[in-house]
Amino acid sequence: MRGPHALQPIDVPTLTAVLDGAHAEVRNQVREQLGAHAAMVHEAPGLATDDYRERVLAILQDSAQQGLTGLGFPKEYGGAGDVGGSIAAFETLAFGDLSVLVKFGVQFGLFGGAILHLGTARHHDRYLADLVAGRLLGCFAMSETGHGSNVQALGTRATYDVDTREFVVHTPTVAARKDYIGNAAAHGRMAVVFAQLEVGGEQHGVHALLVPIRDEQGGVLPGVSTEDCGHKHGLNGVDNGRLGFDHVRVPRENLLNRYADVTEDGTYASSIDNPDRRFFTTLGTLVQGRISVGGGGIGATKLALTLATRYGLRRRQFGAPGADTEAVLMDYRAHQRRLLPLVARTYALHFAQADLVDRLDRIFSADEPPAGELGDDPLEAAELERLRRELESDAAGVKAVATWHATAAIQTCREACGGAGYLSANRLGMLRADTDVFTTFEGDNTVLLQLVAKGLLTEFRDSFENLDPIGTARFVAAQAVESVAEKTSWWQLAERLRDAVPRGDNDNAGLLDRDYHLALFRWRDDHVRSALARRLKAGIDAGDDPFEVFSRCQDHVLLAARVHVEYLVLEAFDRAINAQPEGPTRAILAALCDLATLSQIEADCGWFQEHGRLSAARSKAITAMVGELCAALRPHAADLVAAFGVPEELLDVEMLAG
Amino acid sequence: MRGPHALQPIDVPTLTAVLDGAHAEVRNQVREQLGAHAAMVHEAPGLATDDYRERVLAILQDSAQQGLTGLGFPKEYGGAGDVGGSIAAFETLAFGDLSVLVKFGVQFGLFGGAILHLGTARHHDRYLADLVAGRLLGCFAMSETGHGSNVQALGTRATYDVDTREFVVHTPTVAARKDYIGNAAAHGRMAVVFAQLEVGGEQHGVHALLVPIRDEQGGVLPGVSTEDCGHKHGLNGVDNGRLGFDHVRVPRENLLNRYADVTEDGTYASSIDNPDRRFFTTLGTLVQGRISVGGGGIGATKLALTLATRYGLRRRQFGAPGADTEAVLMDYRAHQRRLLPLVARTYALHFAQADLVDRLDRIFSADEPPAGELGDDPLEAAELERLRRELESDAAGVKAVATWHATAAIQTCREACGGAGYLSANRLGMLRADTDVFTTFEGDNTVLLQLVAKGLLTEFRDSFENLDPIGTARFVAAQAVESVAEKTSWWQLAERLRDAVPRGDNDNAGLLDRDYHLALFRWRDDHVRSALARRLKAGIDAGDDPFEVFSRCQDHVLLAARVHVEYLVLEAFDRAINAQPEGPTRAILAALCDLATLSQIEADCGWFQEHGRLSAARSKAITAMVGELCAALRPHAADLVAAFGVPEELLDVEMLAG
Question: Is the pTM of this model over 0.90?
Answer without folding.
Answer: yes
